[in-house]
Design a protein that fits this description.
two-stranded antiparallel sheet; mainly alpha
Length: about 180
């Protein structure tokens, strides 16, 4: 039977090993998470989420209501839908008044208004980000948008300013053709 000293030493050894493992894991995590580019990405994602909320509000609260005044769109665009299969309580005269009513009745619906709303929202976010990138490039003389062309030899995309292709290392000025 092991003595108290031997079991105490084994316990101390196990504690040291556990501390070492936890310390190494923490150091690895902090090396990963606290790098400059990871923090920049995290801040960028937070700003992007807030920006997306603003653009979503702009599209749904400012842009889409005037669009819904067009004569053939007589209600909110988000509420436009087509009934593919009627539910149990469908009435031939009036049908369903809202998308929620149709879904609650068990009808199979195609909510194309919601899809159009999301497409307009996506285009709004994309255009807004493009304008911000253009303004940043104009203000800082450092373009965020990198223009590319196809390499004449390997047909892969490379920077339009490149003198040599990064993929096949051929010269882009044609000196290899001579």
């Amino acid at each position: 039977m092991p003595s108290l000293d031997e079991s105490g030493e084994a316990l101390m050894r196990a504690e040291r090993d556990a501390r070492k493992r936890v310390s190494r894991a923490w150091d690895g995590f902090s090396d990963f998470a606290l790098r400059d580019n990871v923090l920049e990405v995290a801040v960028g994602l937070i700003i992007a989420a807030a920006f997306t909320t603003v653009v979503t509000s702009f599209v749904s609260d400012i842009l889409l209501p005037p669009i819904s005044l067009i004569p053939f769109i007589n209600k909110n665009l988000e509420e436009k839908f087509a009934v593919l299969r009627r539910g149990a309580h469908y009435s031939k005269g009036s049908g369903y008044n809202t998308l929620k009513q149709a879904i609650d009745d068990g009808a199979v619906v195609m909510a194309y208004g919601s899809f159009i709303d999301k497409v307009v929202n996506f285009i709004g976010v994309g255009l807004s980000l493009y304008i911000i990138a253009q303004l940043y490039g104009w203000a800082s003389n450092d373009s965020v948008i990198k223009h590319t062309v196809k390499c004449k030899y390997c047909r892969k995309q490379i920077s339009e300013k490149a003198k040599r292709c990064v993929n096949c290392t051929s010269w882009q000025d044609g000196r290899e053709d001579k």
